Amino acid sequence: MKKSHSFYICLVAFSCGIIFSSFVRNSTVEKFTLPYKKAGLTEQQAAAHLLSRFTYGAKAGDVDAVVKEGLEKWFVQQLDGKQDNANLNQMLARFEDINLTNTEVENLYPRNAQVVRFAVKDGVIHKDSVNKANGKEYREQILAYMKTKGFKPQQELYRHDMQMGGNAQQQQRRKKFQEDFQKKKLQLGKGKSGLNENYAREVMELHTLGVDGGYTQSDVTQAARVLTGWTIAPMGDNGYGAPIKKLMETVGKENLTKRGYVLDGDFIFAMNRHDNGEKVVLGKKFPAGGGYEEGVELLKMLAHHQSTAKFISKKLATRFVNDNPPQSLIDKMAKTFLSTDGDIKSVLITMASSPEFWSKEALREKTKSPFELAISAVRSLDAKVNQPYQLYTWINKMGQQMYYYQAPTGFPDKGQYWINTGSLLNRMNFGLALASQRIPGITFSLAKMNNNHEPESAEAALTIYSKLFMPERKLDETIARLKPMLNDPNLEKNVANAAQKSTPPQQMNTMANEDANIMD
Q1: What is the pLDDT of residues 423-452, one digit of tens each?
Q2: Which domain range does residue 262 map to?
Q3: Do residues 237 and 294 both lie within one domain?
Q4: Residue 431 located in a structural domain
Q5: What pTM did the predictor assign?
């Protein structure tokens, strides 16, 4: 049976948990100083830069709050991930599904193929039309069935905290990855002797060594042999995997463990599917009969490899510095990675303590993805979001179809992917629609942001709100270019017309209706 892409995501996630758990957590942080003054930045400008890199955007007052707390102290707290999230938790409490187990998710939210079978069994459509999945009539019938029966797409259930300081806390991190699995199935390879080279290649290419990490095709094949038997437990009570799930429950965990199986959360090492022969990966010999432990040893070896240190350091620098981070910075970060057993907090402190992070080549040099742009915009306005799906629609329109990117790497972290003529136009249209409050369900008060004071003139409003929305920037030239437009008698009319043209029709589909009042 063909495996879904989600299966590989689940299994790679588990492997990442073991990779990270191979490190010993370095809980102490040596005193450090952020060298922003050497770059000619004020404390306020440095705070704005930190906020732009390590949050989804500054809100009014955030810069002053960071300065008051102290930049280094604030940064460490961000890496610890221990901020008070009471308001967020209260809002998320409405989403009961995030507390479901993977088995409950599998049973509650059936896959598309199962929905088709349910529809057939209910007599909603004729059996012979199942073979006409591309037909208009079939699509209309199945859509009607889904609406009638309340079918919903598979829910997004990743609920882990992004703790940049975590180099994975032993088994806790490992279990965390397991809990975060979206869903999916049993079976690795096509029978006992089958190899999953795609999985082995993803572990090496995407999560450890990198594409230029010095491994060969032979290493991929040998690593796949080491990882035979590594799989995900069947979760659902119906459909594919259900018989195996019932059999496992009958045999019992204790008996399976005696037979060499390893059961840990949703992960299973199936001893009867493991290749027990000798293997050699990157010059390291794995003797015959290594079982589950040789897989753990392989992942530890990859985690501590020099290429892994460089690969992860470059990924982090690309994310937080600029699209082409200097090699000097990557080398410093990689050195810290190796000397601290892969402590990500220490690596990020090395990055932020380096002159390269504060250079002019790094300031405001990252292009926001559509998601980051939309979220930072509503944050800067302190907007009330009553219909999140409206933002989702705009994010899609600006070029980021959430949850639809096919490659396992996730969306690229480089500006060239997001910037083209069409996307720039849509970004401008989004700004017009938001500023004109023409996005349904997104509201804000400019007067409230200015302590309920009305600016005495249009020029004053431009200066005041520019500084509020773009703190600690040199805006004199920008304001000077915009001021002549304020004297245009048709300005308000032109902006209104442009916003009207740029605003898409209000979403009235099922998801939008359900979403309409989900957030206060």
Answers
A1: 888 998 998 899 888 899 999 888 887 777
A2: 164-204+215-300
A3: yes
A4: yes
A5: 0.77
